[in-house]
Amino acid sequence: MDERIKQLLALGKEHYEKREFERAEHYLRQLVDRKVPFADVYNMLGVIHHDRGQFEEARIAFEQALSLNPNYTEAALNLAVTYNDLGRYDEAKRIYQKALDRSGENPERLDPFVRGKIANLHAEVAKAYEDAGLFAEAKHELRKAILLCPDFADLRLRLANLYRQSGDAEAARFELEEAVKARPEYVNARVTLGLVYLTLGQSREAIREWEKALEIHPEDRSAQMYLRMAKQPSRPPQSWDAPPPTDEDAALRQSEVLEGLNDDALDLE
């Protein structure tokens, strides 16, 4: 490796680690132009694109990183997250599992408690990002956690609520359907899934979810309120937010649901 390439790589990594992505990209692009076959260069560029919401560009970069190093698990995870952002869920599972199998780092071989603990750490980092307003990073960390523990329905609900906030109803629907599949008795997920179905114009499916929620928990005020409003032809909810409720108690509960309140703790033990 000549000195100029070493210098470009060092500068690119330095700015990347400081999250100075524009400066990092300036140096990393020069390495790409020189056709330097470093997988981590493409992985860093992929992260930069993903941070900007440029998911197709991120996909291409991560795929290039994996073509250079098929055992690059970080790039595989990043690509899996990006595939999910693009709605390519089956491909996300396939590419991630394939890379893990090749590397011998399949998390399925870990003790379930250890996997849960690591997933919990990712969830905590996601919460920190969310509190800081860095929602793309929060989603990224939640996807890492879910790839480790796909049956953690509460994590899928959290991720779905982030997708809802960004207006991506289809991605939210997928996460909530998976959450309900993993935990059929999870009332919060069913109530929120009903809201997403309603946003997608699937009122029958919305009513079905709220009715199922009430079968599980007949006193759930959110499901009662949404079901009552959905059955009023003159006032069908047309957006993420349902129409104003008729009493203060219901208003408080509605606010909790719409803000994605999740009363269930992670099932780690």
Overview of the structural elements:
- The protein has 269 residues and is mainly α.
- It contains 14 helices and no strands.
- It has helices at 3-17, 21-33, 39-51, 55-68, 73-85, 89-103, 112-131, 135-148, 153-165, 169-182, 187-199, 203-216, 221-230, 248-258.
Q: Provide the helix percentage.
A: over 70%
Strand content: under 5%
- Bulk shape: elongated
Runs in which pLDDT lies below 50 for 5 or more consecutive residues are: 236-269
Structure characteristics:
single chain; 269 residues; mainly alpha; 14 helices; 71% helix; elongated; disordered C terminus
Q: What is the element layout, followed by pairings?
A:
Elements: H1 3-17, H2 21-33, H3 39-51, H4 55-68, H5 73-85, H6 89-103, H7 112-131, H8 135-148, H9 153-165, H10 169-182, H11 187-199, H12 203-216, H13 221-230, H14 248-258
